[in-house]
Specification:
The chain is an alpha/beta fold. Helices cover 33% and strands 16% of the residues. The strands form 3 sheets. The chain has a 5-stranded parallel sheet with strand order 3-2-1-4-5, with helices on both faces. Strands 9-6-10-11 form a 4-stranded parallel sheet.
């Protein structure tokens, strides 16, 4: 089986579950750290000719991360493309199982069982907090409706104030984000790399949680530790 992945979190899932199956991945596929495959460009601008030259049996994509024209070009070249859709945690587990089966993984991997058990046994949050979750600045963009990351936070007791916005990733003026007076501003390190020196200064007087983008937005092996890692970062914002 020869697989090319255009989704970083799925790259990690396939790499640890079907060793040797991956022959190509995007430049953004950073896990596992020792991944040694042909790089095929970015998630939004993959090099179709390079992918076709790898003669994959399957290309794994995502309806949000990858562009339909690129996927159509791969199909036109005779390449099979599996497109995933992940809007919440349960759907992530279903799609992961589908992807791994398509990659020839016979037995359900232990990490997937452990991750699903972790999320299904989460204790009810002691209290709920409100948040804005920027994913970009210049312009400011935040999580809106029906996002995987928003569902992750909701299950940890954090309610996204823009969860009912008509757009999934709306552009919101900074003054409006501040005026919403959230209990916490959640600043992930991807897709925009927010840091202690780049992000919190825009929200004076508001607690800011710097969180791992991999644990907030990836659906793969990181799901097993995501509740602990994210909860620790959220608690740290209120110290």
């Amino acid at each position: 089986m020869r697989v090319v992945s255009l989704v970083p979190s799925l790259t990690e899932a396939v790499a640890v579950s079907a060793p040797g199956a991956l022959v190509g991945a995007t430049d953004w596929c950073s896990h596992p750290a020792d991944l040694d495959v042909t790089r095929v460009g970015g998630t939004k601008n993959p090099k179709v000719d390079r992918i076709v030259a790898l003669a994959p049996d399957l290309v794994i994509a995502n309806e949000e991360e990858n562009r339909e024209p690129d996927l159509a070009a791969l199909r036109a070249a005779g390449v099979e493309v599996l497109v995933t859709e992940v809007r919440d945690v349960p759907q992530a587990f279903r799609e992961l199982a589908r992807v791994l089966a398509a990659c020839g993984v016979g037995a359900r991997p232990r990490w997937l069982d452990e991750a699903e058990e972790t999320w299904s046994s989460l204790p009810l949050p002691g209290r709920r907090t409100t948040a804005v979750v920027p994913i970009w600045r210049r312009p400011w963009m935040v999580l809106g409706r029906a996002t995987f990351a928003g569902d992750v936070l909701a299950r940890l007791g954090v309610d996204n104030l823009w969860a009912t916005h008509e757009d999934r990733y709306p552009r919101i003026p900074l003054d409006d984000l501040r005026a919403a007076a959230p209990d916490v501003v959640v600043l992930p390190d991807e897709p925009y790399r927010f840091t202690a020196d780049d992000g919190p200064e825009a929200y004076p007087g508001l607690p800011c949680a710097l969180v791992s983008g991999r644990h907030l937005t990836w659906y793969g092996p990181s799901l097993a530790e995501a509740p602990r890692v994210l909860s620790e970062a959220l608690r740290a914002a209120h110290r």
